[in-house]
Design a protein that fits this description.
The protein is of the alpha/beta class. It has a single domain, classed as Spore Coat Polysaccharide Biosynthesis Protein SpsA, Chain A. 38% of the residues lie in helices and 15% in strands. It is built from eight helices and seven strands. Strands 3-2-1-4-6-5-7 form a seven-stranded mixed sheet, sandwiched between helices. Helix 5 runs parallel beside helix 8. The longest helix is centred in the middle third of the chain and has 18 residues. It is globular, with a radius of gyration of 16 Å. The protein starts with 7 loop residues before the first strand and ends with a helix.
């Protein structure tokens, strides 16, 4: 159920996810959030039509990049009036690899325990075989190990499914426009001494082919950007 006095918004970046996006939007528990915002990152298929039909607010961002789409969603939320102002923002992917019905688990540490940032950890949850490529698993381990050593905050994953208090999100001041989005949020939260935690989430094979790990170039670019972000913010 929607928490009294809490405006919870969901931001879902999506690029050509026509088959999966209605499932993602449809599986978010009814009454839990005030608005679901799907940001179409230059989609050329029926992603926008299907998301709108599923009940989401649809924005379009033609500048390519995962972070670029997320920033578009945050710019939209910044225009809300005082009554609609976000208290919590949830991010998840549009490919149906996350389980949207687990959103209450991701929100619980913020709503009940005073946490600022909650990461849905695929490492701690049950992961369907083949849902993550070997390079993703290794990249997650390397990145989270570096964050622990350099910033003294322990994470097990850079997973996209996460919730963050809106006032803390503004303090983080997100800037990355592509592959460094998730790690930027976690590193800056560590530097700002925010109260962070993880909860186990399940993870399955995505619908369709990944635009990042589905190609050699995407994998290399993502890995480079994540490592560069970790050291740049030091």
């Amino acid at each position: 159920m929607k928490q009294a006095g809490k405006n919870i918004y969901v931001v879902i970046p999506a690029f050509n996810e026509e088959a999966s996006i209605p499932k993602v939007v449809g599986d978010i528990p009814a009454g839990l959030v005030r608005e679901v915002v799907v940001v179409s990152n230059g989609s050329t298929d029926q992603t926008e039509f299907n998301a709108r039909n599923a009940g989401a607010t649809v924005l379009r961002e033609d500048r390519k990049g995962y972070g670029q789409a997320c920033l578009k969603g945050l710019a939209y939320l910044a225009e809300k009036n005082a009554e609609e102002r976000p208290d919590i923002v949830v991010f998840l992917d549009g490919d149906y690899s996350d389980y949207p019905e687990e959103m209450p688990l991701v929100l619980k540490p913020i709503l009940e325990e005073g946490y600022d940032l909650v990461i849905g950890s695929r490492e701690l949850g049950d992961r369907e075989k083949g849902a993550m490529q070997p390079q993703q698993i290794f990249g997650n381990w390397l990145a989270t190990t570096l964050i622990r050593l350099l910033y003294k905050l322990s994470f097990s994953d850079l997973g996209p499914f996460r919730a963050v208090r809106y006032d803390k999100l503004l303090e983080i001041d997100m800037q990355d426009t592509n592959f460094g989005w998730t790690v930027e949020m976690q590193v800056k939260a560590a530097k700002l001494k925010m109260k962070c935690t993880e909860v186990p989430v399940n993870y399955r094979r995505r619908i369709g082919v990944s635009k990042v790990t589905g190609t050699i170039k995407g994998t290399i670019m993502a890995g480079y950007k994540i490592l560069w972000t970790i050291f740049k913010l030091l």
